[in-house]
Write a structure and sequence with these properties.
Elements: E1 3-7, E2 11-16, E3 23-30, E4 37-41, E5 49-51, E6 57-59, E7 65-68, E8 71-73, H1 77-85, E9 91-95, H2 108-117, E10 119-125, E11 135-139, E12 142-148, E13 152-158, E14 167-172, H3 175-182, E15 188-190, H4 191-199, E16 212-215, E17 218-220, H5 230-243, E18 252-257, H6 261-284, H7 306-312, E19 324-329, E20 332-338, H8 358-377, E21 382-394, E22 403-414, E23 417-426, E24 429-442
Parallel strand pairs: 4-9, 13-18, 15-16
Antiparallel strand pairs: 1-10, 2-3, 3-9, 4-5, 6-7, 7-8, 11-12, 12-18, 13-14, 16-17, 19-20, 20-22, 21-24, 22-23, 23-24
Length: 443
């Protein structure tokens, strides 16, 4: 299949989460070309999304966790494997908890709902990645090498530290082999690991219904093994899911020995670095791309440069937190703040990890709101005093290089007291919001 694909209809599944043990509802929605796979937390305010990309991987201890700011989704690999196995490039995975349902510990149930929903081709072409040279990884006991090939093939050997249940399997991965050779392989663990996992709250929803347990030479399971090499095949299932975090299919032969989520994701990062090499080379001989900074139209009503701003605001650097007003439209105003490394607060917040304090974002919103009220009531020699803030939310860090766009709407103005709803955005994504109340007083 040379074109991108998505689902024909939405697909839903409910079950328990492996780590939390709580009920989880999941719905996989169709998505347009170029969207990729995204996880959407519908249980959180603003329904935040996390792109299924390797740069968003935050944890790889026994499963793969994605994070963006304070939002996380755990154990994503089995759902991602089902989508990647069928060649689905674009989908939105909605969850009302912080992890998908574990189902039976494999991708079988997810395959069923995808088959029921159907797969829809899209007119846009799919991008593949073929390595230009072998990509090697050595991470602890994990060894992985990706060789160039015209298809995607995995050859894998798995074993525990004691050499028990050493297994080998090799197959080309395409929608047909995915469904018959890998999708039904269940997760497994060794009996001596269970106590540690339970004590650390990692498998509250774990049971023999969704995992195979190995105790000495015995295999504990509610049904016979689904494959003779079920353990190594599950390792390969994980590889399919983790490598899908590249955002494009791989054409290559992967040889893996004792793979792990940490190894899979590190290999994905190495592959991503090779993908980016041509772009980096082009950037060496070209001017840097312009950041998507909103620029005011020359005739925008109410547009104000810094000199005009300082006629309305008494604040001065370093506490003047607005660089420009883009426009004023009735009861709405838009301002910007260019966040640079020269800000004095970055010396201590935090050294080596600069983040704009949330309270300063709040102050910036209040300053823009004050300009709006002063313009509306045409007050002279007045200062807007910040009185209160309600429903304050900080959604993700603001760092040097960001352009903070503040969109303010005046909700009410009575006399010299005003209340406004403010939203701060970076690249179109909300980073903070609040309702601010302020009062005008003589300067």
């Amino acid at each position: 299949m040379l074109n991108q694909q998505t689902l024909n209809h939405s697909a839903s599944f409910s079950g328990i989460g492996l780590h939390s043990g709580n009920r989880v509802n999941m719905t996989i929605l169709p998505a347009p070309a170029g969207c990729g796979v995204r996880f959407r937390r519908v249980d959180l305010d603003g329904r935040p999304e996390i792109e299924a990309r390797v740069e968003n991987v935050s944890e790889t201890n026994r499963s793969t966790t994605l994070a963006k700011g304070n939002v996380k989704v755990h154990t994503v690999e089995h759902v991602l494997a089902a989508l990647a196995g069928y060649g689905i490039d674009n989908a939105i995975v909605e969850l009302d908890a912080n992890e998908p349902p574990i189902a039976d510990g494999s991708s079988r149930e997810f395959c069923k709902i995808i088959q029921a929903a159907g797969i829809a081709p899209l007119p846009e072409k799919r991008e593949y990645f073929t390595p230009t040279e072998p990509i090697e990884l050595q991470l602890g006991e994990t060894t992985m090498t990706l060789f160039p090939d015209t298809r995607f093939k995995i050859t894998c050997t798995s074993a525990d530290k004691k050499g028990r249940f050493t297994q080998f399997f090799s197959t080309e991965v395409n929608p047909q082999t995915w469904e018959t050779e890998l999708a039904h392989a269940r997760t497994f663990c060794f009996y001596e690991e269970i106590e540690f996992l339970f004590k650390n709250g990692l498998i509250k929803g774990g049971s023999l219904e969704n995992a195979v347990v190995i105790r000495d030479d015995a295999v504990l399971t509610t049904e016979p093994l689904r494959y003779r090499e079920e353990f190594v095949r599950h390792k390969m299932l994980d590889i399919v899911g983790d490598l899908s975090l590249l955002g494009r299919p791989v054409c290559g032969h992967l040889i893996a020995v004792r793979p792990s989520h940490a190894g899979n994701c590190e290999l994905a990062k190495k592959i991503a670095a090779q993908i980016q090499q041509p772009a980096r080379a082009a950037q060496t001989f070209a001017p840097p791309p312009a950041k998507n900074v909103p620029e005011p139209l020359p005739a925008a009503d109410g547009a104000m440069n810094i000199e005009e701003l300082m006629k309305f605001l008494p604040h001065r650097p370093p506490f003047l937190l607005v660089d420009r007003i883009l426009k004023i439209d009735g009861m709405k105003i838009v301002g910007i703040k260019n966040v640079t490394m020269n800000e004095p607060h970055f010396q201590g917040h935090f050294p080596g990890h600069p983040i704009m304090p949330g309270v300063l974002q709040l102050e910036a919103m209040a300053q823009v709101a004050g300009v709006l009220l002063l313009k509306i009531i045409k007050a002279a020699n007045q200062v807007a005093y910040f009185m209160a803030a309600d429903n304050v939310k900080w959604r993700r860090p603001v760092v040097p290089g960001d352009v903070l766009v503040m969109e303010i709407e005046l909700l009410k103005a009575r006399g010299k007291i005003g209340k406004a709803k403010g939203v701060c955005k970076v690249d179109g994504e909300i980073v903070s919001e609040a309702e601010v109340t302020f009062m005008l007083r003589d300067a």
